[in-house]
Specification:
264 residues, alpha+beta, seven-stranded antiparallel beta sheet, 6 helices, 11 strands
């Protein structure tokens, strides 16, 4: 496919969109095959607050084949890494640069491409978070319900914040207001099916989804997430050890500070 890449923002992390002449028609075919019902029991602990529901593995098999046939997602993933690799390396500053260079120079593919269908009912939202360190690029395809409208505000919201979150800790309710007050909303993606939108993950790639509001209480915000993950390479495992080590150091520092404050 003849993909056209357009950079929307470069700092503090890269946000972009890709398209091609027949994309709208391809996405329409995918939207028409969106399952009528997703498995509402298939909700992980991290998704309970957002009430976001994903495809079961069985549902996903059929859809992944359809998406790969319509969009050639593995080829798209390789194209994006080839075009964005300098920005990924210099905004992440971790060991992923080794595996990226192995791909660019030697052709070795150290990543895994996964698809998720997401469904969010009225009243749900996703708090600001950065995604886990193993995620390299996230792609989002939106399926607006154009007949009734009312979902124009539901594109992903991106934030500029000095708060680093390498481990992808989701904000608690009591911390979210403080985060929003001390951070700047830099971009809200349009909730449309004109492009495949995406961003390169790093420790400050904060993003969220506003509460789903619609007069039709049966409405569901539907999207397709295509994620490029760092595979279980030696570098990825080493990076995980570093993350774990840094977490223990920070926890120990917080504990010491708490004990000192108590003793005072």
């Amino acid at each position: 496919m003849d993909w056209n890449l357009e950079i929307l923002k470069t700092t503090p992390f890269v946000i972009f969109r890709v398209g091609h002449p027949t994309l709208k028609n391809e996405l329409k075919k995918i939207a028409n095959r969106f399952p009528a019902e997703l498995d509402h029991a298939h909700i992980s602990p991290d998704q309970k607050r957002s009430r976001e529901i994903f495809l079961t593995e069985t549902q996903g098999d059929d859809f992944i084949r359809l998406i790969d046939r319509q969009l050639e997602i593995n080829d798209l993933a390789k194209l994006l890494i080839r075009k964005l690799w300098p920005k990924i390396i210099f905004t992440r500053r971790d060991l992923v640069f080794i595996d990226i260079l192995r791909f660019i120079v030697l052709g070795y593919w150290p990543f895994d491409v996964r698809c998720e269908l997401s469904e969010m009912p009225v009243g749900s939202s996703i708090p600001p978070h950065t995604d886990g360190f193993k995620k390299i690029i996230s792609l989002m395809i939106y399926f607006p319900r154009s007949a009734s409208g009312g979902d124009e505000h539901l594109g992903t919201v991106f934030w500029s914040s000095n708060k680093s979150n390498y481990e992808n800790q989701h904000l608690r309710l009591e911390d979210e207001a403080e985060f929003r007050g001390g951070s700047e909303q830099t971009l809200r993606l349009p909730f449309d099916s004109n492009y495949v939108y995406g961003f390169c993950r790093n420790s400050v790639s904060w993003h969220s989804v506003d509460p789903v509001e619609n007069q039709d209480l049966s409405y569901k915000r539907r999207s397709l997430n295509i994620n490029i993950y760092w595979d279980e390479t030696f570098c990825a495992l080493a990076q995980r050890k570093l993350v774990s080590w840094e977490r223990r150091i920070r926890s120990s520092s917080r504990l010491k500070k708490s004990n000192n404050d108590f003793s005072l």
